[in-house]
Protein backbone atom coordinates (compact mmCIF):
# COMPACT_ATOMS: atom_id res chain seq x y z
CA UNK A 1 0.00 0.00 0.00
CA UNK A 2 1.34 3.41 -0.99
CA UNK A 3 2.35 5.72 1.85
CA UNK A 4 -0.01 8.66 2.29
CA UNK A 5 1.88 11.94 2.24
CA UNK A 6 0.71 14.38 4.90
CA UNK A 7 1.31 18.13 5.13
CA UNK A 8 3.94 19.17 7.66
CA UNK A 9 3.25 20.99 10.92
CA UNK A 10 4.64 24.52 10.97
CA UNK A 11 4.41 27.07 13.76
CA UNK A 12 2.67 30.30 12.81
CA UNK A 13 5.10 33.25 13.09
CA UNK A 14 4.36 35.15 16.28
CA UNK A 15 4.48 38.44 14.40
CA UNK A 16 1.56 37.33 12.21
CA UNK A 17 -0.89 36.64 15.02
CA UNK A 18 -2.00 40.21 15.77
CA UNK A 19 -2.51 41.06 12.09
CA UNK A 20 -4.41 37.84 11.45
CA UNK A 21 -6.73 38.55 14.35
CA UNK A 22 -7.27 42.12 13.13
CA UNK A 23 -8.19 40.86 9.67
CA UNK A 24 -10.80 38.51 11.07
CA UNK A 25 -12.25 41.26 13.24
CA UNK A 26 -12.41 43.57 10.22
CA UNK A 27 -14.25 40.88 8.25
CA UNK A 28 -16.78 40.51 11.02
CA UNK A 29 -17.34 44.26 11.27
CA UNK A 30 -17.85 44.39 7.49
CA UNK A 31 -20.91 42.14 8.11
CA UNK A 32 -19.60 39.56 5.67
CA UNK A 33 -20.70 36.66 7.85
CA UNK A 34 -24.16 38.03 8.64
CA UNK A 35 -26.16 36.62 5.68
CA UNK A 36 -27.49 33.15 6.39
CA UNK A 37 -26.72 32.02 2.86
CA UNK A 38 -23.03 32.80 3.40
CA UNK A 39 -22.97 30.71 6.57
CA UNK A 40 -24.81 27.80 4.95
CA UNK A 41 -22.42 27.83 2.01
CA UNK A 42 -19.42 27.71 4.35
CA UNK A 43 -20.89 24.75 6.22
CA UNK A 44 -21.60 22.88 3.01
CA UNK A 45 -18.10 23.50 1.66
CA UNK A 46 -16.61 22.32 4.94
CA UNK A 47 -18.62 19.11 4.67
CA UNK A 48 -17.16 18.30 1.27
CA UNK A 49 -13.63 19.18 2.35
CA UNK A 50 -13.93 16.70 5.21
CA UNK A 51 -15.37 14.11 2.84
CA UNK A 52 -12.64 14.61 0.25
CA UNK A 53 -9.86 14.41 2.84
CA UNK A 54 -11.06 11.31 4.71
CA UNK A 55 -7.90 9.35 3.92
CA UNK A 56 -5.64 12.17 5.13
CA UNK A 57 -7.62 12.64 8.34
CA UNK A 58 -7.56 8.92 9.08
CA UNK A 59 -3.82 8.67 8.45
CA UNK A 60 -3.09 11.76 10.57
CA UNK A 61 -5.03 10.38 13.54
CA UNK A 62 -3.28 7.04 13.15
CA UNK A 63 0.16 8.63 13.24
CA UNK A 64 -0.65 10.92 16.16
CA UNK A 65 -2.64 8.52 18.34
CA UNK A 66 -2.50 5.10 16.72
CA UNK A 67 -6.23 5.63 16.31
CA UNK A 68 -8.01 2.84 14.40
CA UNK A 69 -9.61 3.98 11.15
CA UNK A 70 -13.03 2.90 12.42
CA UNK A 71 -12.69 5.12 15.50
CA UNK A 72 -11.48 8.03 13.38
CA UNK A 73 -14.49 7.70 11.12
CA UNK A 74 -16.84 7.28 14.08
CA UNK A 75 -15.72 10.12 16.32
CA UNK A 76 -13.90 12.48 13.95
CA UNK A 77 -14.95 12.36 10.31
CA UNK A 78 -18.63 11.33 10.36
CA UNK A 79 -19.17 13.27 13.61
CA UNK A 80 -18.07 16.55 12.01
CA UNK A 81 -19.71 15.87 8.65
CA UNK A 82 -23.05 15.13 10.31
CA UNK A 83 -22.76 18.35 12.33
CA UNK A 84 -22.21 20.32 9.11
CA UNK A 85 -25.33 18.88 7.49
CA UNK A 86 -27.46 19.22 10.63
CA UNK A 87 -26.48 22.84 11.16
CA UNK A 88 -26.87 23.83 7.50
CA UNK A 89 -30.33 22.25 7.37
CA UNK A 90 -31.55 23.87 10.58
CA UNK A 91 -29.77 27.22 10.58
CA UNK A 92 -32.68 29.29 9.32
CA UNK A 93 -34.86 27.94 12.09
CA UNK A 94 -32.21 28.52 14.76
CA UNK A 95 -31.49 32.07 13.57
CA UNK A 96 -35.13 33.14 13.35
CA UNK A 97 -36.32 35.82 15.75
CA UNK A 98 -37.94 34.31 18.80
CA UNK A 99 -41.12 35.39 20.54
CA UNK A 100 -40.49 35.73 24.29
CA UNK A 101 -42.76 33.86 26.65
CA UNK A 102 -45.03 35.23 29.42
CA UNK A 103 -44.97 38.85 28.29
CA UNK A 104 -47.59 41.04 30.09
CA UNK A 105 -50.46 42.09 27.83
CA UNK A 106 -49.56 45.77 28.01
CA UNK A 107 -46.03 45.05 26.81
CA UNK A 108 -47.16 42.99 23.84
CA UNK A 109 -47.99 46.26 22.08
CA UNK A 110 -44.22 46.92 21.80
CA UNK A 111 -43.65 43.82 19.68
CA UNK A 112 -41.02 42.20 21.92
CA UNK A 113 -38.71 39.73 20.19
CA UNK A 114 -35.34 38.09 20.68
CA UNK A 115 -32.80 38.43 17.90
CA UNK A 116 -29.94 35.97 17.43
CA UNK A 117 -26.82 38.07 16.92
CA UNK A 118 -23.29 36.66 16.45
CA UNK A 119 -20.94 37.40 19.32
CA UNK A 120 -18.11 38.50 17.03
CA UNK A 121 -14.63 37.05 16.55
CA UNK A 122 -13.98 33.77 18.35
CA UNK A 123 -10.89 31.88 19.46
CA UNK A 124 -11.28 28.09 19.46
CA UNK A 125 -8.55 26.09 21.21
CA UNK A 126 -8.77 22.35 20.52
CA UNK A 127 -7.36 19.26 22.23
CA UNK A 128 -5.19 16.40 21.00
CA UNK A 129 -7.37 13.43 21.91
CA UNK A 130 -10.04 14.20 19.29
CA UNK A 131 -8.18 16.70 17.11
CA UNK A 132 -10.93 17.19 14.52
CA UNK A 133 -14.04 16.77 16.62
CA UNK A 134 -12.85 19.21 19.30
CA UNK A 135 -11.73 21.87 16.81
CA UNK A 136 -14.17 21.54 13.92
CA UNK A 137 -17.16 20.89 16.20
CA UNK A 138 -17.04 24.30 17.91
CA UNK A 139 -16.06 25.95 14.61
CA UNK A 140 -19.30 24.70 13.03
CA UNK A 141 -21.21 26.52 15.77
CA UNK A 142 -19.18 29.70 15.22
CA UNK A 143 -19.83 29.61 11.47
CA UNK A 144 -23.54 29.00 11.96
CA UNK A 145 -23.83 31.84 14.46
CA UNK A 146 -22.19 34.28 12.04
CA UNK A 147 -18.89 34.70 13.87
CA UNK A 148 -15.40 34.81 12.43
CA UNK A 149 -12.91 32.49 14.10
CA UNK A 150 -9.35 31.42 14.69
CA UNK A 151 -8.82 27.71 15.35
CA UNK A 152 -5.76 26.74 17.41
CA UNK A 153 -5.35 22.93 17.21
CA UNK A 154 -3.24 21.02 19.72
CA UNK A 155 0.44 20.79 18.87
CA UNK A 156 0.45 17.37 20.60
CA UNK A 157 -1.32 15.95 17.52
CA UNK A 158 0.82 17.66 14.83
CA UNK A 159 -0.24 15.56 11.84
CA UNK A 160 -3.92 16.14 12.55
CA UNK A 161 -3.27 19.84 13.12
CA UNK A 162 -1.56 20.17 9.73
CA UNK A 163 -4.34 18.29 7.93
CA UNK A 164 -6.94 20.40 9.72
CA UNK A 165 -5.25 23.54 8.46
CA UNK A 166 -5.32 22.15 4.92
CA UNK A 167 -9.02 21.21 5.16
CA UNK A 168 -10.08 24.63 6.43
CA UNK A 169 -7.89 26.54 3.97
CA UNK A 170 -9.39 24.62 1.06
CA UNK A 171 -13.01 25.08 2.09
CA UNK A 172 -13.59 28.26 4.11
CA UNK A 173 -13.27 31.97 3.42
CA UNK A 174 -9.72 32.79 4.62
CA UNK A 175 -10.68 36.32 5.60
CA UNK A 176 -13.16 34.89 8.12
CA UNK A 177 -11.71 31.58 9.31
CA UNK A 178 -8.11 30.51 9.77
CA UNK A 179 -5.79 28.19 11.69
CA UNK A 180 -2.92 29.31 13.85
CA UNK A 181 -0.39 26.61 14.72
CA UNK A 182 1.98 26.44 17.65
CA UNK A 183 2.43 25.68 21.32
CA UNK A 184 2.51 27.79 24.50
CA UNK A 185 4.11 30.94 22.95
CA UNK A 186 1.56 31.07 20.14
CA UNK A 187 -1.36 30.34 22.47
CA UNK A 188 -0.14 33.06 24.84
CA UNK A 189 0.06 35.53 21.95
CA UNK A 190 -3.46 34.60 20.90
CA UNK A 191 -4.79 35.16 24.41
CA UNK A 192 -3.25 38.64 24.37
CA UNK A 193 -5.59 39.61 21.53
CA UNK A 194 -9.14 40.92 21.94
CA UNK A 195 -11.80 38.27 21.45
CA UNK A 196 -15.57 38.23 21.64
CA UNK A 197 -15.64 34.55 22.62
CA UNK A 198 -13.09 31.96 23.72
CA UNK A 199 -13.91 28.26 23.45
CA UNK A 200 -11.37 25.96 25.09
CA UNK A 201 -11.22 22.18 25.40
CA UNK A 202 -8.57 20.64 27.63
CA UNK A 203 -7.36 20.32 31.18
CA UNK A 204 -8.71 22.02 34.28
CA UNK A 205 -5.27 23.55 34.97
CA UNK A 206 -5.05 25.31 31.60
CA UNK A 207 -8.76 26.16 31.78
CA UNK A 208 -8.07 28.24 34.88
CA UNK A 209 -5.29 30.12 33.08
CA UNK A 210 -7.56 30.89 30.15
CA UNK A 211 -10.44 31.92 32.41
CA UNK A 212 -8.16 34.29 34.31
CA UNK A 213 -6.88 35.83 31.07
CA UNK A 214 -10.40 36.17 29.65
CA UNK A 215 -11.56 37.89 32.84
CA UNK A 216 -9.12 40.74 32.19
CA UNK A 217 -11.20 41.81 29.19
CA UNK A 218 -14.54 40.38 30.35
CA UNK A 219 -14.48 37.97 27.42
CA UNK A 220 -17.16 35.25 27.60
CA UNK A 221 -15.72 31.74 27.65
CA UNK A 222 -16.84 28.16 27.25
CA UNK A 223 -14.66 25.58 28.97
CA UNK A 224 -14.90 21.90 28.10
CA UNK A 225 -12.69 20.28 30.73
CA UNK A 226 -12.19 16.78 32.11
CA UNK A 227 -13.09 15.25 35.39
CA UNK A 228 -12.66 12.38 37.79
CA UNK A 229 -15.83 10.79 36.47
CA UNK A 230 -17.37 8.11 38.71
CA UNK A 231 -19.03 4.87 37.68
CA UNK A 232 -21.19 3.24 40.33
CA UNK A 233 -22.15 -0.44 40.23
CA UNK A 234 -24.68 -1.69 42.77
CA UNK A 235 -25.15 -5.28 43.89
CA UNK A 236 -28.23 -5.54 41.66
CA UNK A 237 -26.39 -4.63 38.44
CA UNK A 238 -25.56 -7.04 35.63
CA UNK A 239 -21.76 -7.51 35.98
CA UNK A 240 -21.29 -8.74 32.41
CA UNK A 241 -23.13 -5.77 30.93
CA UNK A 242 -21.38 -3.25 33.19
CA UNK A 243 -17.93 -4.72 32.48
CA UNK A 244 -18.40 -4.76 28.71
CA UNK A 245 -19.76 -1.24 28.47
CA UNK A 246 -17.26 0.32 30.86
CA UNK A 247 -14.35 -1.47 29.16
CA UNK A 248 -15.50 -0.05 25.82
CA UNK A 249 -15.64 3.43 27.36
CA UNK A 250 -12.04 3.03 28.56
CA UNK A 251 -10.55 1.49 25.43
CA UNK A 252 -11.94 3.98 22.91
CA UNK A 253 -8.98 6.18 21.94
CA UNK A 254 -6.90 4.18 24.47
CA UNK A 255 -8.79 5.84 27.30
CA UNK A 256 -7.83 9.36 26.26
CA UNK A 257 -11.42 10.55 26.57
CA UNK A 258 -12.52 13.31 28.92
CA UNK A 259 -15.86 11.63 29.66
CA UNK A 260 -14.64 8.10 30.38
CA UNK A 261 -14.92 6.84 33.96
CA UNK A 262 -11.95 7.59 36.19
CA UNK A 263 -12.88 5.13 38.94
CA UNK A 264 -15.60 2.55 39.47
CA UNK A 265 -17.18 2.32 42.92
CA UNK A 266 -18.58 -1.19 43.12
CA UNK A 267 -20.50 -3.13 45.72
CA UNK A 268 -18.10 -5.51 47.43
CA UNK A 269 -20.28 -8.52 46.58
CA UNK A 270 -19.90 -7.79 42.87
CA UNK A 271 -16.10 -7.49 42.70
CA UNK A 272 -15.15 -11.10 41.77
CA UNK A 273 -17.81 -11.36 39.05
CA UNK A 274 -16.98 -7.92 37.66
CA UNK A 275 -13.24 -8.67 37.40
CA UNK A 276 -13.98 -11.98 35.72
CA UNK A 277 -16.29 -10.29 33.19
CA UNK A 278 -13.71 -7.56 32.56
CA UNK A 279 -11.18 -10.19 31.55
CA UNK A 280 -13.76 -11.94 29.37
CA UNK A 281 -14.67 -8.68 27.65
CA UNK A 282 -11.00 -7.82 27.07
CA UNK A 283 -10.47 -11.21 25.42
CA UNK A 284 -13.59 -10.69 23.30
CA UNK A 285 -12.53 -7.22 22.14
CA UNK A 286 -8.94 -8.22 21.36
CA UNK A 287 -8.68 -12.00 20.75
CA UNK A 288 -4.96 -11.77 19.97
CA UNK A 289 -4.26 -9.20 22.66
CA UNK A 290 -4.66 -5.44 22.61
CA UNK A 291 -1.11 -4.81 21.43
CA UNK A 292 -1.54 -6.91 18.27
CA UNK A 293 -4.99 -5.51 17.52
CA UNK A 294 -5.50 -2.88 14.80
CA UNK A 295 -8.52 -1.72 16.82
CA UNK A 296 -6.62 -0.37 19.83
CA UNK A 297 -4.85 2.98 19.91
CA UNK A 298 -1.71 4.31 21.52
CA UNK A 299 -0.80 7.01 24.03
CA UNK A 300 -0.23 10.33 22.28
CA UNK A 301 3.40 10.94 23.29
CA UNK A 302 6.22 9.97 25.65
CA UNK A 303 5.32 12.61 28.23
CA UNK A 304 1.78 11.28 28.63
CA UNK A 305 3.08 7.70 28.67
CA UNK A 306 5.49 8.57 31.49
CA UNK A 307 2.70 10.24 33.44
CA UNK A 308 0.47 7.16 33.20
CA UNK A 309 3.34 4.80 34.06
CA UNK A 310 4.12 6.89 37.13
CA UNK A 311 0.50 6.62 38.26
CA UNK A 312 0.59 2.84 37.92
CA UNK A 313 3.97 2.61 39.67
CA UNK A 314 2.76 4.71 42.61
CA UNK A 315 -0.58 3.01 43.21
CA UNK A 316 -1.07 0.86 46.28
CA UNK A 317 -3.65 -1.13 44.39
CA UNK A 318 -3.42 -4.59 42.88
CA UNK A 319 -3.47 -5.14 39.11
CA UNK A 320 -6.17 -7.74 38.43
CA UNK A 321 -6.47 -7.47 34.63
CA UNK A 322 -3.85 -6.39 32.07
CA UNK A 323 -0.86 -4.34 33.11
CA UNK A 324 1.62 -4.76 30.25
CA UNK A 325 3.16 -1.72 28.56
CA UNK A 326 5.88 -0.77 26.09
CA UNK A 327 7.26 2.76 26.00
CA UNK A 328 8.89 2.28 22.59
CA UNK A 329 5.43 1.65 21.12
CA UNK A 330 3.58 4.03 23.49
CA UNK A 331 1.43 1.02 24.34
CA UNK A 332 -0.43 0.53 27.60
CA UNK A 333 -2.75 -2.43 27.87
CA UNK A 334 -6.24 -1.85 29.33
CA UNK A 335 -5.48 -2.33 33.01
CA UNK A 336 -7.90 -2.99 35.86
CA UNK A 337 -6.54 -2.11 39.30
CA UNK A 338 -8.33 -2.88 42.56
CA UNK A 339 -7.61 -0.07 45.05
CA UNK A 340 -8.59 0.32 48.68
CA UNK A 341 -8.59 4.09 49.27
CA UNK A 342 -9.86 7.28 47.68
CA UNK A 343 -6.41 8.77 48.32
CA UNK A 344 -4.84 6.34 45.85
CA UNK A 345 -3.28 8.25 42.91
CA UNK A 346 -5.51 6.39 40.45
CA UNK A 347 -8.60 7.76 42.20
CA UNK A 348 -7.39 11.18 43.32
CA UNK A 349 -6.09 12.18 39.87
CA UNK A 350 -7.57 11.90 36.41
CA UNK A 351 -5.77 9.15 34.52
CA UNK A 352 -6.87 10.09 30.98
CA UNK A 353 -5.69 6.71 29.79
CA UNK A 354 -6.65 3.01 29.70
CA UNK A 355 -6.44 2.50 33.45
CA UNK A 356 -9.59 1.24 35.22
CA UNK A 357 -9.34 1.44 39.02
CA UNK A 358 -12.15 -0.19 41.01
CA UNK A 359 -12.86 0.62 44.64
CA UNK A 360 -15.07 -1.86 46.59
CA UNK A 361 -17.77 -0.22 48.77
CA UNK A 362 -20.21 -1.48 51.37
CA UNK A 363 -23.38 -0.16 49.73
CA UNK A 364 -24.84 2.45 47.40
CA UNK A 365 -24.88 5.18 50.04
CA UNK A 366 -21.14 4.79 50.56
CA UNK A 367 -20.55 4.86 46.80
CA UNK A 368 -22.49 8.12 46.43
CA UNK A 369 -20.71 9.68 49.41
CA UNK A 370 -17.28 8.79 48.02
CA UNK A 371 -18.19 9.93 44.51
CA UNK A 372 -19.25 13.32 45.83
CA UNK A 373 -16.12 13.67 47.97
CA UNK A 374 -13.65 12.74 45.22
CA UNK A 375 -15.01 15.22 42.68
CA UNK A 376 -18.39 16.82 43.23
CA UNK A 377 -18.82 18.18 39.67
CA UNK A 378 -17.43 15.63 37.19
CA UNK A 379 -18.07 15.74 33.48
CA UNK A 380 -20.03 12.49 33.56
CA UNK A 381 -21.58 9.99 35.97
CA UNK A 382 -22.28 6.35 35.07
CA UNK A 383 -24.75 4.27 37.06
CA UNK A 384 -25.49 0.54 36.92
CA UNK A 385 -28.26 -1.00 39.00
CA UNK A 386 -32.02 -1.02 39.33
CA UNK A 387 -34.10 1.83 37.99
CA UNK A 388 -34.65 3.14 41.51
CA UNK A 389 -30.94 2.91 42.35
CA UNK A 390 -29.92 4.77 39.20
CA UNK A 391 -32.50 7.47 39.90
CA UNK A 392 -31.10 7.80 43.42
CA UNK A 393 -27.62 8.30 41.98
CA UNK A 394 -28.94 11.04 39.70
CA UNK A 395 -30.75 12.73 42.59
CA UNK A 396 -27.77 12.69 44.94
CA UNK A 397 -24.85 13.50 42.63
CA UNK A 398 -23.92 16.29 40.24
CA UNK A 399 -22.23 16.10 36.84
CA UNK A 400 -22.19 17.69 33.42
CA UNK A 401 -24.09 14.72 32.03
CA UNK A 402 -24.95 11.15 32.93
CA UNK A 403 -25.42 7.79 31.24
CA UNK A 404 -27.48 5.16 33.00
CA UNK A 405 -26.52 1.57 32.36
CA UNK A 406 -23.74 2.66 30.01
CA UNK A 407 -20.50 4.57 29.63
CA UNK A 408 -20.79 8.17 28.30
CA UNK A 409 -23.54 7.43 25.77
CA UNK A 410 -25.07 10.83 26.55
CA UNK A 411 -22.00 12.48 25.00
CA UNK A 412 -22.43 10.66 21.69
CA UNK A 413 -25.86 11.99 20.72
CA UNK A 414 -25.17 14.84 18.26
CA UNK A 415 -28.30 16.87 19.00
CA UNK A 416 -28.02 16.87 22.82
CA UNK A 417 -26.12 19.68 24.59
CA UNK A 418 -22.75 18.53 25.88
CA UNK A 419 -20.80 20.33 28.58
CA UNK A 420 -19.50 20.35 32.11
CA UNK A 421 -20.43 22.03 35.36
CA UNK A 422 -18.20 23.56 38.00
CA UNK A 423 -14.64 22.28 37.72
CA UNK A 424 -15.53 20.11 34.70
CA UNK A 425 -16.38 23.17 32.64
CA UNK A 426 -19.01 25.72 31.79
CA UNK A 427 -21.23 26.18 28.78
CA UNK A 428 -22.31 23.52 26.29
CA UNK A 429 -22.31 22.75 22.59
CA UNK A 430 -23.50 20.11 20.07
CA UNK A 431 -26.68 20.44 18.03
CA UNK A 432 -28.52 23.71 18.55
CA UNK A 433 -26.32 24.40 21.57
CA UNK A 434 -23.37 24.87 19.16
CA UNK A 435 -25.27 27.74 17.55
CA UNK A 436 -26.38 29.17 20.89
CA UNK A 437 -22.92 29.18 22.47
CA UNK A 438 -21.61 31.67 19.87
CA UNK A 439 -24.82 33.72 19.80
CA UNK A 440 -26.05 36.72 21.76
CA UNK A 441 -29.77 36.68 22.48
CA UNK A 442 -30.64 40.32 21.91
CA UNK A 443 -33.97 41.52 23.31
CA UNK A 444 -35.65 44.06 21.03
CA UNK A 445 -38.86 46.10 21.32
CA UNK A 446 -40.50 48.66 19.03
CA UNK A 447 -42.63 51.34 20.72
CA UNK A 448 -45.28 52.78 18.35
CA UNK A 449 -45.96 56.51 18.38
CA UNK A 450 -49.70 56.14 18.94
CA UNK A 451 -49.19 54.49 22.35
CA UNK A 452 -47.88 57.67 23.96
CA UNK A 453 -51.11 58.20 25.85
CA UNK A 454 -50.58 55.00 27.80
CA UNK A 455 -46.97 55.85 28.59
CA UNK A 456 -47.63 59.08 30.42
CA UNK A 457 -47.53 57.08 33.66
CA UNK A 458 -43.73 56.87 33.44
CA UNK A 459 -43.04 60.59 33.04
CA UNK A 460 -42.47 63.07 35.91
CA UNK A 461 -43.95 64.69 37.81
CA UNK A 462 -44.85 61.49 39.69
CA UNK A 463 -48.04 61.12 41.71
CA UNK A 464 -49.92 58.51 43.71
CA UNK A 465 -52.47 58.38 40.91
CA UNK A 466 -49.76 57.43 38.41
CA UNK A 467 -48.40 54.82 40.78
CA UNK A 468 -51.83 53.20 41.12
CA UNK A 469 -52.27 53.28 37.36
CA UNK A 470 -48.91 51.61 36.88
CA UNK A 471 -49.77 48.94 39.47
CA UNK A 472 -53.01 48.21 37.67
CA UNK A 473 -51.16 47.79 34.40
CA UNK A 474 -48.24 45.64 35.61
CA UNK A 475 -48.77 44.11 39.04
CA UNK A 476 -49.16 40.30 39.10
CA UNK A 477 -51.34 39.13 41.97
CA UNK A 478 -50.01 36.19 44.02
CA UNK A 479 -51.83 32.87 44.18
CA UNK A 480 -50.28 32.02 47.58
CA UNK A 481 -50.65 33.25 51.17
CA UNK A 482 -48.06 34.67 53.57
CA UNK A 483 -46.96 31.16 54.56
CA UNK A 484 -46.22 30.28 50.98
CA UNK A 485 -49.22 27.98 50.60
CA UNK A 486 -51.24 27.93 47.39
CA UNK A 487 -54.65 29.52 47.84
CA UNK A 488 -56.32 28.43 44.61
CA UNK A 489 -58.52 30.48 42.32
CA UNK A 490 -61.03 31.36 45.04
CA UNK A 491 -58.36 32.82 47.32
CA UNK A 492 -56.67 34.55 44.39
CA UNK A 493 -59.98 36.17 43.39
CA UNK A 494 -60.53 37.28 46.99
CA UNK A 495 -57.08 38.85 47.05
CA UNK A 496 -57.68 40.52 43.70
CA UNK A 497 -61.07 42.03 44.60
CA UNK A 498 -60.65 42.58 48.33
CA UNK A 499 -63.53 42.29 50.83
CA UNK A 500 -65.41 45.27 49.42
CA UNK A 501 -65.12 43.93 45.92
CA UNK A 502 -66.46 40.57 47.04
CA UNK A 503 -69.47 42.25 48.71
CA UNK A 504 -70.24 44.10 45.48
CA UNK A 505 -69.82 40.92 43.47
CA UNK A 506 -72.29 39.06 45.67
CA UNK A 507 -74.78 41.90 45.60
CA UNK A 508 -74.83 42.35 49.37
From TrEMBL:
One of the GO biological process terms: carotenoid biosynthetic process
Keyword S-adenosyl-L-methionine: no
Sequence ranges assigned to domain Aldehyde dehydrogenase in this UniProt record: 16-444
InterPro entries per the UniProt record, alphabetical: Ald_DH/histidinol_DH, Ald_DH_C, Ald_DH_N, Aldehyde_DH_dom, Aldehyde_DH_NAD(P)
Active site annotation, chain numbering: 224, 258
Keyword NAD: yes
CDD domains registered for this protein in UniProt: ALDH_F14-YMR110C
One MF annotation (Gene Ontology) recorded for this entry: aldehyde dehydrogenase (NAD+) activity
Keywords (A to Z) from UniProt: Carotenoid biosynthesis, NAD, Oxidoreductase
GO cellular component: cytoplasm
Family: Belongs to the aldehyde dehydrogenase family.
Protein name: Aldehyde dehydrogenase
Amino acid sequence: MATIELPSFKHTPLDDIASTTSQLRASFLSHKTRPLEFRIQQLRKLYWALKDNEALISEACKRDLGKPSFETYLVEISWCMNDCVFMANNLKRFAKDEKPQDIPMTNMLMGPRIRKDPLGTALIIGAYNFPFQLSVGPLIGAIAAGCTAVVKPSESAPYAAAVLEKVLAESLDPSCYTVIQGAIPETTALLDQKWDKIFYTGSEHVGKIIAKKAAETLTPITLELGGRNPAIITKHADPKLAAKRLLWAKTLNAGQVCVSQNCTFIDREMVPAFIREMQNALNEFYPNGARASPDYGRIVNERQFARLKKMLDSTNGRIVVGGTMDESDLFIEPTVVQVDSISDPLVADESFGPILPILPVTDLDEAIRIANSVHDTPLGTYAFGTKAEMEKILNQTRSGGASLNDGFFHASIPTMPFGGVGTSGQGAYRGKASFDVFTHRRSVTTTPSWIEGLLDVRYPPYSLKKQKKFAGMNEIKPNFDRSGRSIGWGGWLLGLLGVKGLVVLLGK
